[in-house]
Amino acid sequence: MTKKQKYWIRRVVRTIITAFGVTLIAFLILHLSKGDPVKIMLGPYATEENVAALRAKYNLDEPLHVQYLTWIGNVLKGDLGNSIRYNRSVNELIGERIGPTLILTGSGLVIAVVFGVMLGISAALRRNSLLDYFSTFQAMFWISIPAFWLGILLLYIFGLQLRWVPIAGMTGFTSIILPALTLGLRQEAWFARPMRAEMLEVLNQDYVKTAKAKGLKYRIVIWKHALRNALIPIVTMLALRLPWIIGGSVVVEVVFSWGGIGSLLVNSVLARDFPVVQAILLIIAITVVLANLFADLIYSVIDPRIRTAG
Amino acid sequence: MQNNDVTYENIRNDIKNLKRKKSSQMSLVWSRFKKNRLALVGFIIVSIVIFIAVFAPLLTPFDPLATDPINRLQGPSKEHWLGTDELGRDVLSRLFYGSRIALQIGVLIILFEGAIGILLGVVSGFFGGFVDSLIMRIVDILRSFPVIILAMAVAGILGQGVVNVVIALGLVGWTTYARMVRSKILSIKEMDYVEAAYSIGESRFSVVMRYILPNAVSTAIIMICIMMPTALIASATLSFLGVGVQPPSPAWGSMISAGRDYLLKAPWISTSAGLAIMFTVLGFNFIGDGLRDALDPTTKKN
Questions:
Q1: pLDDT in tens, A160-191
Q2: Would you tell me which residues 124-163 of chain B have a C-beta closer than 8 angstroms to some C-beta of chain A?
Q3: For residue B73, is it within any domain?
């Protein structure tokens, strides 16, 4: 076996262990509550029969490991359980709401990467210029402002005062602008700063100096030699920031009444609709686990220098 | 025999010198930090916030919880500098008392997650092997959940209150410390002075206590400054989502949330709380950046 194969086998085993742990946490979270989860779900006025019926329905009288195996068995078959609040299958609920969330996180991600990469490159090319300082300062600003307040601020200025965009809900193209900006701008800082540092590093490399020395046009040196290599770490950054973008989308969905997974999650937590909470936690965490594996894979393909140790 | 003694004495001296060199490094770091203007600004902002939090009862003319329905949603005036909220409570007084909640929760989160994270990071980095793999897999697992999402679920299930917010956020937060401290310990383990300490027959315990931990302290201090903004924003977000510290206590997050319904009539409620969070977080971020640059001047050079 080559070193590379060994590395990938270890990497996949790690992913499987992590995925297993993630299911355990999503499952056990329900048992964090001090009292009987069913009584908490049904509220103080539930009758004894209702409680007993629900206990039986969720196998809560079985030992913990049996409960887990039943749950995970159903999940693997594609059945995420039933919502108590809506009295519908969780699959259906999530199916209806995954679209808006994907649109929101997708456009947030595009804004973050495009703005971040552009600002990072321009800051590196004009080091210590006004633009460079602006880039540093705006990055600091975005990471210091809570997403929910940025959302409310944008809503106040562009929705209530200027009336350029609808103030809530999903009504056509203009309604995505503010949520996507709120989500994307806050994450942009995390791409701009590494991009600038990486670009400066690459510009100092011998192969870029050689390209310049042999008389290639400035534009070609930048775009063909420097940028291609400087972009590689952005792939890793994307995987690293993904949990934060998903977390941010939950907050943004609440601020803008965006009917996606995030607002469903918040409502379910507040209503103690535990099967929905468990299912959404599981889906999000598994997405993050797979994204990390995928990012490593892409990284090793586009950068043959990747170290396979460790 | 005598020859051995001489070598031993030399090594002891070397180690002493190395320790002395470290302390001069610390003063170097401090002088670099002082030169950084933004870090100084951050330091001033944070000092002001701490001052307000400590002396809130003396600085505020009103009780932050006292309602006054006749004077509700009043704009900023001589009496109420930042206006009143939907129940007629003085926004400035609530803002000042809110700084207490913010800092209290922030510090508790840092202590809680820092203690767990630093301990497990040291154990992981020093012992390696199975213990290391086990701790690092737990870190992987917890980090697969976005902080705010797992914290919201946990806080929602545990119920409202400061302690539950701290537990919910610390549950994922410690992993950042554990990773950083672990990698620092791994690099310290390779240092000559650690090998020297072993070679003169010091025990593992004494090596950890005398050489490894003291050298990891700076990493831990930076971590704490860097993690404070995250703790502040996350706890405010939990309040906003309705699972953190809740009304009537004047948490900044819930002030923004409550003021949201009165944005047109009384924008000052949300705005003042929002600005308060932003400036506090900005202050800590300036300090964190300054510390990072001071400890690793190579990042500043290019």
A1: 888 888 777 777 778 888 999 999 999 998 99
A2: 137-138, 140-150, 152-154, 156-158
A3: no
In a domain, residue B13? The reply is: no
Residue B99 is part of a domain; what is its CATH number? Answer: 1.10.3720.10
A152 has a chain B CB within 8 A of its CB? yes
Q: Mean pLDDT over residues A54-78, rounded?
A: 83
Element (H, E) at A159: none
Nearest CA in chain B to A202: B302
Residue B236 falls within a domain, yes or no? Answer: yes
Task: Determine, for residues B240 and A251 on separate chains, whether the beta-carbon distance falls below 8 Å.
Answer: yes
Q: Answer yes or no: is B247 within a domain.
A: yes
Tokens matching residue B257: 């949330």
The pTM score is 0.85
| Residues B254, B247: Cα–Cα separation, whole Å | 7
DSSP type of residue B70: G
Backbone phi, psi, residue A59, to 5°: 55, 30
Give chain A positions within 8 Å (CB) of B150: 25, 281
Which A residues, 97 through 136, put their C-beta within 8 Å of a C-beta on chain B?
A: none
Q: What is the dihedral of CA B236, B242, B246, B251, to 10 degrees?
A: 20
pLDDT band at residue B77 under the 50/70/90 scheme: confident
Q: Who has greater pLDDT, B183 or A170?
A: B183
Report which of residues B83 and B176 the model is more confident about.
B176
Q: How far is CA A300 from CA A15, B65, B117, in A?
A: 16, 58, 30
3-state secondary structure of B27: helix
pLDDT over 50 (residue B283): yes
Would you call B263 and A143 a contact, using CB atoms and an 8 Å cutoff?
A: no
**Structural contact between residues B231 and B110, judged by C-beta atoms closer than 8 angstroms:** yes
ipTM of predicted assembly, 2 dp: 0.87
Q: Across the A/B interface, how many CB contacts are shorter than 8 Å?
A: 145
Query: What's the domain count of chain B?
Result: 1
What range does the domain containing B259 cover?
Answer: 28-68+79-295
The number of helix segments (H) and strand segments (E) in chain A equals 14, 0
Whole-number pLDDT of residue A310: 39
Q: pLDDT-derived band of residue B29, with 50, 70 and 90 as boundaries?
A: low
Q: Which residues contact A124 (CB under 8 A, 6 or more apart)?
A: A195, A196, A197, A199, A200, A203
Q: How far is CA B74 from the centre of its chain?
A: 36
Beta bridge partners of A89: A82
Across A280-284, B112-116, B221-225, least confident range: B221-225
Residue contact A284–B146, C-beta within 8 A: yes
